[in-house]
Design goal:
By secondary structure, the protein is α+β, with helices and mostly antiparallel strands. The protein folds into 2 domains: 31 residues; 121 residues, Immunoglobulin-like (Sandwich), CATH 2.60.40.790. Helices cover 22% and strands 30% of the residues. It is built from 3 helices and 7 strands, in the order H-H-E-E-E-E-E-E-E-H. It is elongated.
């Protein structure tokens, strides 16, 4: 397999370390397929990750977010059963998803062997487009000038 740094030498890209780290993370985990999962876009800025975790209970699953990485851990506690055939895998797993800068985990639910994690893309107020009134600066300047004139006139001795 050809690595990211072989295709694009880091020495030629200054300040892109975070991008190379992300690409290397994706390359390392490209073959991870357990547990099976879906990623759905459920709205304009809403997403849903579904993991098929049949055989696990709610207490055997953990969901954590740290440094824009969503991590789901599963560790099945054996109940001492004797299997003749075991077709449902309950092996220990750790599944990670890298989140965009403004994606937050909105909640998680577990039902019918599916762990569903709700994500929301939230644009911070300072990055949202805003409308600028034309002439507002001039009005504000005039208001300040008029206020100063009014104060100066009212302070004159009688």
């Amino acid at each position: 397999m050809t690595g990211v740094t072989t295709l694009f030498p880091r020495s030629t890209f200054v300040g892109f370390d975070h991008l190379f780290n992300e690409l290397e993370h994706v390359a390392r985990h490209a073959k991870d397929n357990y547990p099976p999962h879906n990623v759905l876009k459920t709205g304009e800025s809403d997403y849903l990750i579904e993991l098929a975790v049949a055989g696990f209970s709610r207490d055997e699953l953990a969901v954590e977010v740290k440094d824009r990485t969503l991590t789901i851990n599963g560790e099945h506690v054996s109940k001492g059963r004797e299997y003749i055939h075991r077709g449902i895998s309950t092996k220990k797993f750790k599944r990670t998803f890298r989140l965009s800068e403004h994606v937050i985990v909105h909640g998680a639910d577990f039902k019918d062997g599916i762990l569903a994690i709700q994500l929301k893309y939230v644009v911070p107020e300072e990055l949202r487009p805003r409308k600028i009134s034309i002439g507002h600066y001039e009005e504000l300047t005039n208001d300040i000038t008029h206020t100063k004139q009014f104060l100066a006139e009212t302070e004159k001795p009688i």
